[in-house]
Amino acid sequence: MNSRRDFLQKLGLSALALQLAPVTNWAAGSNNTTKTYDGPLLRVAIMGLGSYGTRVAEAMRQCTKAKLVGVISGTPSKITRWQSEYNIPEKNCYNYENFDAIKDNPDIDAVYVITPNGLHHDEVIRVAKAGKHAICEKPMTVNAQQGQEMVDACKAVGVKLLVGYSMHFEPHTLEVIRMRKAGEFGKIKFFQGQCGFTIGDPNQWRLNKALSGGGSMMDIGIYAVNGSRYMTGEEPIWVTAQETKTDPVKFKEGIDQTIQFQFGFPSGAVASCLSTYDMNNLDRFFLDGDDGFAEMQPSTNYGPIQGRTNKGLLNQPITVHKTVQMDEMAEIIFHGKKPVVPVDGEEAVKDLNLIDAIYLAAKTGKRVEV
Amino acid sequence: MNSRRDFLQKLGLSALALQLAPVTNWAAGSNNTTKTYDGPLLRVAIMGLGSYGTRVAEAMRQCTKAKLVGVISGTPSKITRWQSEYNIPEKNCYNYENFDAIKDNPDIDAVYVITPNGLHHDEVIRVAKAGKHAICEKPMTVNAQQGQEMVDACKAVGVKLLVGYSMHFEPHTLEVIRMRKAGEFGKIKFFQGQCGFTIGDPNQWRLNKALSGGGSMMDIGIYAVNGSRYMTGEEPIWVTAQETKTDPVKFKEGIDQTIQFQFGFPSGAVASCLSTYDMNNLDRFFLDGDDGFAEMQPSTNYGPIQGRTNKGLLNQPITVHKTVQMDEMAEIIFHGKKPVVPVDGEEAVKDLNLIDAIYLAAKTGKRVEV
After folding, report:
1. Sheet holding A66-72, edge to edge
2. pLDDT, tens digit, for every residue of A119-136?
3. Interchain proximity B279–A288, CB inside 8 Å
4. Does B209 participate in catalysis according to the annotation?
5. Would you say B222 and B324 are in contact if contact means Cβ atoms under 8 Å apart?
6. What CA–CA distances, in Å, run from A257 to A26, A248, B179?
7. A274 at interface of B, judged by CB pairs closer than 8 A
8. In whole angstroms, what is the distance from residue B339 CA to residue B342 CA?
9. ipTM surpassing 0.90, yes or no?
10. What is the pTM of this model?
């Protein structure tokens, strides 16, 4: 198994395009998958043209309700390349100095912020002040306080703030959530989320605290945090955590290498999770109830997601996560659609609250009530 | 999936006999599986004729190096039944008052103690004083101090003290250990042991602190403790633990319902484990290294044990755990054979030390150095 990061790094545009060939335009929870969409297209500018931005842009080629129309980047050569690749007009291109002027651009509805975590807070608030809807990659920012400020800023000007929780639209995931809500697993007792990979280049921004806000927790660990909530359907009331660091050169102060963390839920259910930048072969969710279980492995990777329950293999469609996410976000923004699991800023603040608590518990060695 | 306890409870003698039909007399690590054994038979008396004692007795029918020849029980009707079932002479039958007289019985080599945990300490010491080898079910006793006293008592009189760690002879388990030692998984980073089942009858001895010494940890959790050690090949240096109790009527003071616990190892590897009397569908070991992994599921149940590694499915023989264990114990006692993973009293004291630390960590909420 390749690590997620390696996988990203190895993928070039052509490989990505190839991978996208068998796209299923499956919209989670939607009843109109065969109906032609006649609503307005969500016209999106992507901020941050790195590998993840490229992934989103490629996935958006298959969108029917959203369209990439603009870019924001500090690198003129990247802008030129994207203009040519995605047919983006000059008037929809911005840099980090001038993008507030997007306010006066009637051809852009939303900005998708795909920059390092530590920059999201200020950038999203600038997007909001420009009167555009903000879509922000996860983690939305580096702590709950900043997250709440972003929510408040968007609310103040009446724009939407959505977060790139693509798993919230993933069919296998949604089927497990449906089964859990229908009581098919009985009383839920346990969730396990193991998320991690071996990170490569020691000089990347993800290992720079000012840009990343933290280590594995701020990259891959958030999947286990978020998954603990949507898989169990409960909000944790306590957190314990144990950090292990064997390589303090690569993983400097404030950059977590490996954190084990546990949650307790109001029902008495518990979660056991692992977030790491130092292990391979990890991508497993396990939800256990009195009457059954669900195991997903891979559970959050670019997939394909695979899963089984006590009733057998899950046979949901394979989707390109970001294609579905962006089409669904058009429905949320324009038609007020309520996704099965929220993807708004408030949802992200809940995760950030838990990440704050995990870091505190790891540092103090004490159980943190949340 | 049935719980281990349910499975035991549902099994009658005939079902057990049926299950034993396709027995493979596979001796772990032995080179003479096809050779006829010409050493002395290990002549064993079983102390404690409950469901687990019955399991051992049935498994021993297939032994080639060990033989059930005696019983010790407080229930005369059970003795009568076992005499008839296993052809046991009157002179090899004892009760809890008179079994010290076994000292003068030249036809019994060893006593296998299969009574409630809380009784093992005194009983094993009496067996030792009677000059017989002691085989004791796990957990060997209820804390490390008592365990050390048992080791010392057996050493003082020169008898062997062996513990019923049947997984130490299980072929899939041994293959994973072999691969790990050969470096086939690379540097080991993580172990996960999830052990538990939903316990039935609230009045059973296992939920009575005086007899059990604890809850799930003293029954099923010890498999994860022990597995953490033999799977990684390291001894933990720190322990953290979190206890959850939702049913204080069934799980009284000192009887743990669910405990999550974590270990840290000298190499920087970590373990994440779960011990519970309140969940189904749990029986998984996962060993993760830089170059590969092993997943066993079921990992310690009566099986059959199933496993896979990054190289594919494990195809080791299916064995009856207690048959192999007892044949191997004959080799250990009479021929000084060294098993791949020790099964002696010192090995058990290491587990008990960790269980002591887990209970302390759960109670104080603090990391315990060991």
Report:
1. A93-94, A66-72, A42-47, A110-113, A133-136, A161-163
2. 999 999 999 999 999 999
3. yes
4. no
5. no
6. 36, 9, 26
7. yes
8. 6
9. no
10. 0.90
